[in-house]
Design goal:
about 400 residues, mainly beta, about 10% helix
Length: about 400
Amino acid sequence: MHMYRPIQRLLAVVVLSVVASALSGCQSDAVATSRGWEGQIDSLPSGVLVVRNDGHGVWPDSGGWTLQEEVRIGSLDAEGPENFGRIVSLAVDGEQRIWVLEGQAAELRVFDKNGAYVRTVGRSGGGPGEFRQPMRVDYGPDGNLWIMDPQNTRLSVFDSAGTYLQGLRTAGGFVIFPWAGGFDRNGTYYAPISLPGDESAPQFGFARFDLSFAPQDTIVPPTDPAERASFTLVSDNGQSRMTASVPFQGGMRTHLSKAGTLWALITDQYRLMEFDANGDTLRVSTKQHAPLAVSAEERAEAIDDLEWFTSQGGRVDESKIPATKPLATSFFVDDAGFVWVAIVGDANANEQRFDLFNPTGQFLGTLTAPFRLLTSPTPIVRDGTLYGVIRDSLDVQYVVRASLRTP
């Protein structure tokens, strides 16, 4: 079993990196690219790469990457396969067909690259080729579609024509969203598993399998280095406990990459960290930023959203709610290893802003998607094309295909 090294220890190393550079003779250079990046990269004796971004990216002010929508699949009113209830995952096969896993209907809907409906695969149920609560679809290196259905404790495999091939038994009985896992580019498959521990605060790791679905080992993800505040309600007899997170305090997000590494984002520190499959830290990337003020309206709305907790007797200590919120909210890593960090923008705008980092951790610049692109389910960025799920102003879900233009 691989264990990720404690982040707290690594953060202390990062703080002392300049001292370590002077005492240990490791290289520390201000790096400037042809487009003007002026951050700093430290290579520590341990091999950890520490990248400090000063907030100015590689892209010139006059332009950077852009997204141009080409296809939108979905409907607000019309009945049919284009009407989505809850999209939980996407996959794109070798013919650029888009496989949309519809969680509410428990089925796969296939569309060609231009958005035309092709077929529906699977249906609700417990039999072969049926789904009880499918959570993820992946296009495998074998050319087949692999659908994780934890409520059926099964990984169902279909060929690209939609024919059911086999069902592989998996650990299940739990549902987490977003459901992480899938294939890396080496053909290793990752599936979430429940780790032993406190049942009131379940922890999840990843089991790794080869393409024959033989188990290899288990990865335990890193834990948040900060102790996060919460609101707690304990029953009169002390036998049960209910907790609610404090709004706006930030947290840690994780994402598996196609390289077989695991990235973590600590939102309130705007700190990105990459770990290899053995649990060793590869890099730490930080970006200078200013936290955002929490408005009175946001504060009141957050308190209203805790009504489910207060209605059961819970008490909200408003003094715990911070006056600021993180700039970074969530992130994903694309097929080429570029990191897309979703940042706070205008809540009323029909767009989503992303800070882009290259695989080394250098900040490139900010891209504004011309639609409200969600990071869950994870978008797919491949061969200059982005496939993702968006929401419109009425919170209706659509699937989009957009060209990624890089000057």
